[in-house]
Amino acid sequence: MSKMLCQDVYQFGQKLIRRRPLEPREESESRMACCLNTLDLVALGVGSTLGAGVYILAGEVAKDKAGPAIVICFLVAALSSVLSGLCYAEFGARVPCSGSAYLYSYVTVGQLCAFITGWNLILSYVIGTASVARAWSSAFDSLIGNYISQVLRGTFSLHVPYFLAKYPDFFALGLVLLLTGVLVLGARESALVNKVFTGLNLLVLSFMIISGFVKGDLHNWQLTEQDYKLVTSGSNDTSRLGPLGSGGFVPFGFNGIFQGAATCFYAFVGFDVIATTGEEARNPQRSIPLSIVISLCICFLAYSGVSAALTLMVPYYQIHPDSPLPHAFLHVGWAPARYVVAVGTLCALTSSLLGAMFPMPRVIYSMADDRLLFRGLARIHARTRTPIMATLASGTLAGVMALLFELSDLVDLMSIGTLLAYSLVSFSVLVLRYQPDQNLSKIEKTEKGTEMKPVVEESPLEPVPEAGTSKILKSLCDPINTIPTRKSGQIIYGCASLLVLLLTVLSLILAQWPSRVFSGDPVYTTAAVLLLLFVTGVTVIIWRQPQSPTPLHFKVPALPVLPLMSIFVNVYLMMQMTSGTWAQFGVWMVIGFVIYFGYGIRHSLEENNRQPPASNSQTFDKNIPGAESS
What we know:
Structural class: mainly alpha
Number of strands: 2
Strand content: under 5%
Radius of gyration: 26 Å
Oligomer: single chain
Order of helices and strands: HHHHHHHHHHHHHHHHHEEHHHHHHH
């Protein structure tokens, strides 16, 4: 009886770690249209990332956290985002399929982790879409004298729990449904609309940057306490201007720079929309990596340029936190320019909204195509070649949330899903680079379609291990083989998983008790140092293992350091979330597990279409430890 129970538990565990092969499935629905070029992908990435935050965030961070050094904050945040962006870029070159982080996790880590990733991506995109729609409605309403909100509040005032809005925002609902219709028309049409609004946004930002350098005063980067006293002379209340810091270019010191960089990091969230276009890009192996890097560079230049212009036009302690740019132009005597800012804000919100809505149905479609979500959501429209049911379902859900919910309390919940996806993609890159290439099928996608090109490479024979602890350590730090073997692949899986655990504990300590760690508290400081030493040791073991020589259009440099730094940054930011946010995350996961264990695990294609042992035409995932159960 106990033996049968153990066998059942083992088989159930094997189901949870089943990995998806990469070859296109013959039973899949007709594929989506390959119509997006590199410019389309860059516009999607920039439009999704460069939202209304560029008009607001710079003022908030400069006033209270960094001062003129906000330019450095955006540089640090951009470099941190590039860590994840490079990992996405390698997977975009490796996997020319739709699904983004969900698919990458399915190929590498297994089905359960893939479902968790996809389910949380859906949450992030839904909350992002609904919140941007309400922000668009609010911005437009303020331009016309708050007429819409007054009418709706007087007619449909809601006296309901705190998480619901004070009144239903029918304008936001209509906006979401309108853009859902645009998405249904086709990827090419959606990309065209996005390029128009993204281009207008960049023109407005360019105008503001040039204006700021023309009307700015370099003295605002060299302010002293005397300047602060001149501004507040004649008033006993100086607190209304906020803290001064120590003046100069870095008034709040390095601590202010790092605090500001942590806030600015979220300004670069959104580039992952590019990774969901694998089936619709004409040349994904080349255009996806290139587009991710270019879009992040453009966003950094825009954020840093606007921040520099703003702090040159206005002393940082006089910046208006809610509408910094209109007040800055008013400060320098260019009051009419505030209308240009208003146009740019609406264009940025429109492209950001479309950028949040575009990937959502692609992730749902990919999960439904694997039968982890309901099969009907994988339907492709015969004429437009878009995932029509997934688009309609996601647009309706986001529209209802924009109509009824107060979303300001859910923004952190959206961040958890995004950071979790970033971390899993970095982990997947770290693992796959060290796996053997025996029986590897190279998937190439051209404008004519997807082609399977088997490449058979013999994996070297593994030497018989010598006995003794010293011999084991020697084999870990000085392996004989120069090409990955099955054993070295298993070592990487174990070491990478251990590193994620160690980095999580280290991030928790640094996020929750930073003062105790850096003040020399014997317990916390010792624990942090020991964790850092363990992380360094395990990293060295991974570094010494042989990497796959398989050529790709793009590879993350400096493995294993860059993916591990990306994981650390993402996990550190996740550890700073409040307990209430984690409780909301738990509720969402319970709903997801009900769907997965009630439907997905039984209807998965990996469950119903078990394949025979790997042949020369099957993919590398058969060589990943534990993948045989697929």
